[in-house]
Amino acid sequence: MANLRIIISLIKKDLLYFFRNKTILIVVILPVLASIFFLLIETGIFQIQYDIGLITENNPIEIDNSNYQEINFIEFQDEETARDNLNRIDGILKFQSDNRFNLYLNNLDPTEILILEQYINEIIISTMDYTMPFELNIELIDSQSPFNDLISLWLAVTVAMIGIVVISGDLAEEKDNKTLEGIYIAPISNILFLSSKIISGTILAIITAIIILIANIFLESSLTIYSLLLTAPVIIAGALIFNIIGSIIGLRSKSQSAARSMATIIYFLIVFPGLLATISPTFELIGRLTPAYYFINGLQLDNIIYNLFFISIFIVILVPVLIYSYNEVYYNE
């Protein structure tokens, strides 16, 4: 009994620590919120409907539109006829063989592509009562993006995480270790220190993005040197703005724990509206207030100048905040 009471006391102590520690709470809460977002998408609560052309030629699929709220299938005799109607449909589903389907999508957003892929997979399984593996090949029609749907999303998520979460924690650690005190007596200006810190984080984000691209360039035939060069300014600008945000968080946080907690919250608020901007007008409105929205669209080569312009506006707005935050820490120390 004595050992049991000891174990119960230790458990109580740990649980109290867990619920008082902001970092642990954030780590627990954010995945829950993220799962709720995607569950809402999957259940169709946002009432998104896509018009998909269904090729009836040599097609064993018989689909009743009344069974599916998310997708409205429009039948076409052949692929050529369906492509002639691309101005009013979002994609084309074509039966190729017993276990192979082609889904041609009309230049949709990466998040929409992932959602639509899931819907189509479920429909094929339920309609044809599939018990064997099947292959659903997705191709984009007239897409300007050099990336497939997953690469652009991973680039956005990774670059933002390095800038916001990693750099904020690194700068907060330097504050905790009193590293900044040594800089105050060194012959270096505030601008030089901030520039070096942000450039270092930006280089780290760019290197990571390059690794992601190199790992995928051999698998994605649409990736070309020209298209990668077009996206380079977007990646650099995105890495820069996210590192500025991370530096502000690190400077204004009182500890590493506080910095990571705040960075995780801000990361969630900035990145997810951008990823889900096409899901509902509300998310699009919120997304337009974040740099992640323009970063993701820029990666899709969707009006690069327009998206770079808005990222630049965020940089111009946040640089004075960064300098003010650094000066505040400088004089308080």
UniProtKB/TrEMBL annotation:
Pfam family for this entry, one: ABC2_membrane_3
InterPro entries in the record: ABC2_TM (IPR013525)
Main localization of the protein described in the UniProt heading: membrane
Subcellular location: Membrane
Residue stretches making up the ABC-2 type transporter transmembrane domain: 23-319
Keywords per UniProt: Membrane, Transmembrane, Transmembrane helix
GO molecular function ontology, one term from the record: ABC-type transporter activity
Membrane topology: Multi-pass membrane protein
Bilayer-crossing regions: 21-41, 151-171, 191-219, 225-251, 263-283, 303-326
GO cellular component assignments: membrane
Name of protein: ABC transporter permease
Originating species: Halonatronomonas betaini
